[in-house]
Specification:
Blueprint lengths: L4 H9 L5 H34 L2 H25 L8
Length: 87
């Protein structure tokens, strides 16, 4: 639900000269929502492996998931270079 909050903010504050605040707040909320989604998914991976295989497998699988999210959601975007002509 956290990721949907910027939509509600935008609907309420549109045309009220609050754009800089709206953009900054939406960015923070979206980032928090992504962190919560990744943690939830890692918890699900842990639970599934813990129940199906073992607790140790759950820990390993969830750590692999954490590293995967960090790589795909943090490192890759930070290293991406936009095509020429983009701002």
């Amino acid at each position: 639900m956290t990721v949907l909050a910027p939509i509600a903010y935008h609907r309420i504050l549109f045309r009220r000269d609050r754009r800089p605040w709206l953009v900054e707040t939406a960015n923070r909320i979206a980032r928090a929502g992504l962190v919560l989604a990744a943690l939830t998914m890692c918890g699900v991976v842990f639970l599934a492996f813990d129940l199906a295989v073992s607790r140790a497998a759950g820990v390993v699988a969830s750590l692999v998931a954490v590293v995967g999210y960090l790589v795909l959601w943090v490192l890759v975007p930070l290293r991406a270079h936009p095509p020429s002509g983009w701002r």
